[in-house]
Amino acid sequence: MYKNRLGELLANCRVDGKELSALMVASGSAIANSKETTLYVSDQERAKESMIGLWRGQFVRPWVWRIKN
User: For the whole prediction, is pTM greater than 0.85?
Assistant: First the structure.
């Protein structure tokens, strides 16, 4: 568990000793929240380099899409 920049307590979910967030980011199924923590940033970079999941084609980050729409 850790606290985000607003002081909210966040928890990591694990299955068989593996962190679900890390698995999701590494597979290109989720985005690392680099504004809150450096966790998963390296997993995301590997997914981007491998062009898997979200990184297969052009991808608009959700906050950018919300601004434009």
Answer: no
